[in-house]
Every structure is written in structure tokens, then in C-alpha cells.
Amino acid sequence: MTQVFNFSAGPAMIPTAVLEQAQKELLNWQGQHTSVMEVSHRGKLFMELIAQAEQDFRKLYNIPKNYKVLFLQGGARGQFAAIPMNLMGKKGKALYLTSGHWSLTAAKEARLFCHVDEMNLLEVGDELKTGNLDFSDISPNYDYVHYCPNETISGVEIFELPKVGNTPLVADMSSTILSRKIDISQFGMIYAGAQKNLGPAGITIVIIREDLIGNARQETPSIWNYAVQAKSDSMINTPPTFAWYLCSLVFKYLLSQGGLKAIEQRNQDKAKLLYDYLDNSTFYHNNVAKKNRSLMNVTFTTGNDELNSQFIAQALENGLQALKGHKVLGGMRASIYNAMPIEGVQALITFMEKFEKQNQ
């Protein structure tokens, strides 16, 4: 059987070692002769699990003590609404820096709850690239500034931190979380759906500075209120216990692999391999400027819709799954998150070379 590599943008690959451990423990977790899904989320063993999970996550990112880590539900879309409900203050408005589909979607949702000013980060031109990122002159006018460091659909990543002075910077890191080292102290809040680099869909991580908690508007539902969740260990209702458990295994796995320094290097190596091939090909095209090329989501096209469809179908026959681009953009997309081994990228390039020779 051909080895299968899953390039899905999410739900995405989970490390094989993690899945094997979960499989081994499925019927007998911690000697309880039950699965982790069947034990009380408030029982001693599960409470120990979530405490260790947070400790491991904090270690990976070196999270300062004045930040809370919440394990919530509702995905990033839920946070699109929760953020203005919790962070809107006396200024009554927020600045949303847009660079693609998901940052635009976040801004649209926030408008239901507050006044939003929107600023496009992308410059007009043949390539997708960001322009000026210094907003320190206008940021004091806003309660917070929101942006998306990695646009999953278009493959645009923003490596430089927007300058916003003392205004809280909020980042949707759903598709770049734990892919590279960052300075958490530069952010007011970071949030991410789990289904790219953290674990399975169903759980969402929020890292938030403590001084930003406790300011929710009165009508904020309890499940979206950061203060309520922080006081309840993220468990005002029954949490997605199996997803939380799998995330805890992923954190331990990443630590065992050398932490984010080692993971970042692997991600850079994988991305370089694929982008170098694209740059040397006249058959495939990537329209993202080099300074903004995502380490996680590599988009490309032949420029011909019929050829693109043939590529996707034949790739699947060769064990290369989920290479179809998002319906918003089309073409192809290879999502090479943390769990994708470099062998998967090598297999993709081998197929791309073969397909190019057959169709030139």
C-alpha cells in the first residue's frame, strides 16, 4: 500500500506517536479500565491531566505568569464574537488589520458587537504581500487591535509584529500556533482552534493577559466570559475531554522533540524545500511574496483549472491527500503543519515533478 500523507488544512494531521499512544490507552486510561472519555472531568485524574497540559503548554511558549491559559469551545469563530464582548472598553471601537479571508471574517463578526475600523495590510500588486505595519500613531484610539498572522486559505504569513504601542494586540493564531517561537508578552491575547497544530477539532486555546479579564459587558453569555471561565478552570460546562487529552499528548510530544526551537527549524526546512521547487518551476506558480510565504500553508496552481483538477485526483491516487485549494481561492494547497514529516514534502515534490513532465 502506498504511504499516505495528509495535507489537509484542518482538521489536520496529528503526530503518529500521539495517535498510537491514544490507541493504546483507549480502553484503559491510567489503569482505570475505562477510556479518558468516560471519566469525570472533575475527578482527580482528569484534573491532574489538565494541570499538566497547561504546564507543558506554558513551557513550550515560555508564557509569563501574568497570562491565563483557557481551554474553551466554539472554535476561532466563537472567539470572533467573544473578543469584542470581553475587550471592548471606554473607547468603544477596535481596529482590525485584514490580510485575507479569516481576518475579514473576524472583523465582520465583531461589527455585531462594536464599532470596527478596518485596515487592509496587503499592498496592491501581482504578489500578495504586506505593506506598512506601524500603527502606533492611531492605535491609542482603539480598545484593541486584531490581526491574523497566518491566512490559511491564501498562504500569507505575517512574521513581523504590527506596532500598536500599548494598545492590546489580539492575534488569531489558529494555523500558526506552536509552529515557531514568539514572544507572548508582546500580545494582549492569542487564540487558536486546535485542529491544525494542537490536536483535534473541538477545543480552542486562549492565552490572555490577566488585566484584560473581568471587563466583559453585562450581557456576555457565561460561556464566552473570560472571567467566568478563568475562575472555573475552563469548565463551566462539561468540556471536550478527549480533545483536551489529545492536546496534552501533543504538548508532551513537542517537548520530547526539542520544543519550539527544533519544531520551527523543521518547519522552515519543509517550507524551503517546497518553495524552492516552486521557484524553479515554470509549470506551477505561487503568488505570495517571499517575505510573506506561510510556513504552514503553501498555495500553488498550474494556472489551468482542468489541470488543477487532474493534479488533485492523481495526487490522491498516489497517497497525497487533501491538496485541493479552498473554494474561495481554488488551485492547490499543501498544509505542512508540525505533524507533517519532511518525507511527505519530498513525496509531494516527486509527484509534482512527474505530473509536470507529463503535462508540459
From TrEMBL:
* Keywords on record: Amino-acid biosynthesis, Aminotransferase, Cytoplasm, Pyridoxal phosphate, Pyridoxine biosynthesis, Serine biosynthesis, Transferase
User: Mind telling me which PROSITE patterns this protein's record contains?
Assistant: AA_TRANSFER_CLASS_5 (PS00595)
Decide whether keyword tRNA-binding is in the record.
no
Question: Which top class of enzyme applies to this chain?
Answer: transferase
Task: Classify the source by domain of life.
Answer: Bacteria
InterPro entries, per the entry:
Aminotrans_V_dom (IPR000192), Aminotrans_V_PyrdxlP_BS (IPR020578), Pser_aminoTfrase (IPR022278), PyrdxlP-dep_Trfase (IPR015424), PyrdxlP-dep_Trfase_major (IPR015421), PyrdxlP-dep_Trfase_small (IPR015422)
Could you say which cofactors this protein requires?
pyridoxal 5'-phosphate
Q: N6-(pyridoxal phosphate)lysine modification sites?
A: 196
Q: Where is the Aminotransferase class V domain?
A: 4-348
Major subcellular site: cytoplasm
Task: Work out whether the entry's keyword set contains Isomerase.
Answer: no
Which pathway does it operate in?
Answer: Amino-acid biosynthesis; L-serine biosynthesis; L-serine from 3-phospho-D-glycerate: step 2/3; Cofactor biosynthesis; pyridoxine 5'-phosphate biosynthesis; pyridoxine 5'-phosphate from D-erythrose 4-phosphate: step 3/5
Recite the UniProt cofactor note for this protein: Binds 1 pyridoxal phosphate per subunit.
Which Enzyme Commission numbers does its entry carry? Answer: 2.6.1.52
Recorded catalytic reaction(s): these are: O-phospho-L-serine + 2-oxoglutarate = 3-phosphooxypyruvate + L-glutamate; 4-(phosphooxy)-L-threonine + 2-oxoglutarate = (R)-3-hydroxy-2-oxo-4-phosphooxybutanoate + L-glutamate
Residues that, per the record, bind pyridoxal 5'-phosphate? 76-77, 102, 152, 172, 195, 237-238
Subcellular location per the Swiss-Prot or TrEMBL entry: Cytoplasm
Please give the Gene3D superfamilies that the UniProt record associates with this protein: Aspartate Aminotransferase, domain 1 (3.90.1150.10), Type I PLP-dependent aspartate aminotransferase-like (Major domain) (3.40.640.10)
Recorded hits in PANTHER family, A to Z, give: PHOSPHOSERINE AMINOTRANSFERASE
| Family as reported in the entry's similarity comment | Belongs to the class-V pyridoxal-phosphate-dependent aminotransferase family. SerC subfamily.
Q: What is the annotated quaternary arrangement, including any partners?
A: Homodimer.
Function field: Catalyzes the reversible conversion of 3-phosphohydroxypyruvate to phosphoserine and of 3-hydroxy-2-oxo-4-phosphonooxybutanoate to phosphohydroxythreonine.
- Its name, as the record gives it, is Phosphoserine aminotransferase
Give the species this sequence originates from.
Seminibacterium arietis
Taxon lineage: Bacteria, Pseudomonadati, Pseudomonadota, Gammaproteobacteria, Pasteurellales
